[in-house]
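User: Okay, second chain of the day. Same drill as before: sequence in, structure tokens out.
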Amino acid sequence: MYMKLLKPNIVVFLSIFMLFAYKTTENTVALSPLTAVCRDYAATDANLPITISQNNINTYTSSFTISDNITGITDVNVTINITHSFTSDLNIKLISPAGTTVVLVAYPNGNDDANFYGTIFDDVATAVIPGSTPPSTGTFHPAGNLSDFNGEASQGTWQLIVKDNADGDGGTIDSWSLHICGDIVLDTDGDGVSDDTEIANNTSPTDGCDFNIADITVATSTTWQNGDCDNDSILNGNEFVGDTDNDGTPNALDNDDDGDGVLTATEITNNTNPIDGCDFNITDVTIATQGNWLTRDCDGDGILNADDNCLTTANTNQLDTDNDGMGDACDDDIDGDNILNANDNCPMIANTNQLDSNGNGIGDACDSIITSIVIPPGFSPNNDGVNDKWIITNIQNYPNSKVTIMGRWGKVIYEKKNYQNNWKGLNQKGIKVPIGAYYYIIKFNDTTLEDRKGTVFVNY
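Assistant: Same drill. Structure tokens below.
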């Protein structure tokens, strides 16, 4: 509207532009963000050209899908290019995504010559196919009315149906296209969210990678589909729809769609399912797990993933011998000695040195034969090379042990910490003890083994 302001000798016209809204009793509803457009769509049917056989009567279908959602169609024009040696045999129809059928060329059509080249069908035309001069190039009124499509939406699959009603003549459906006018929701960046919704919800209408999944109401554009918002080497159009792990980030923006800690690109490369949080290789986990994956129970042991120390194998007891956070059921080094279970001669007890004194393949640390102490009742230190030393089997496995030998009256005649099986019947002064029985005490200083007491007989 215009406001006229009068001052001495001055007339000022001020143009004021206002945004209008329809007001209800409860709230204000903004005007619809629809924009009137006319767009051209060439059929992208990979089967084109389609051969029309001259040997039989048949019906041929060519179809393609329009992703643009032009709503409230106001006009449709059709252009066809069909090579045929006797076009009067043809019946041609167009079917919309809503299923509405409009006859373009009826049978018989009186067109007793060849080909439709650059033939346009438009309701405003006055010329009709019967009586036209082949190859019927120009604009013609269809046999039916294209206005039957008015009010429908463009989005979906359109079909061109060509029936050849007689044999003896053939040809090809070479190409066809549509010109559609109507209203369309503006989505500048093609991310499926209308511009007005993006502005209202503080996402960018010009950045296809900035949107809320809940705001998607229209089809995404080809340009957007060929982009890669989350840089996972998977095009947006090939990315799985929705928000699989329900973490608030749509799959097209999420580099880990199912929240299992494995990048989507890695899952595809390694043939695990990127939208199944329970299908993954544990060695592929490189990022934090997230979303509803945390509250699932992949191995069915009654322990949620977030709390389970072995995600791929049921382990209700959650046993973790080496306390490394990985349950024994799926730990390839249970005792944490940096030797894999498959190569460890004592996988349940850490034994980095892998000592195996008796060579039976069982590490000394867990060999019941090695750990049992055998104390001989006597020996003969006469230097004949046989039983010259008091050999206590396996005492070397107890370096904190202490051996004490006493005479009849309790006097200590020999004492040694970390006994190395080298007592040859000598007292503390290095003199041979007399033949006889001597009392011994062996303290192992190990909570797993009781101390031993007894007598040993020395004989020469």
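The chain has a mean pLDDT of 86.

User: Thanks, on to the next one.
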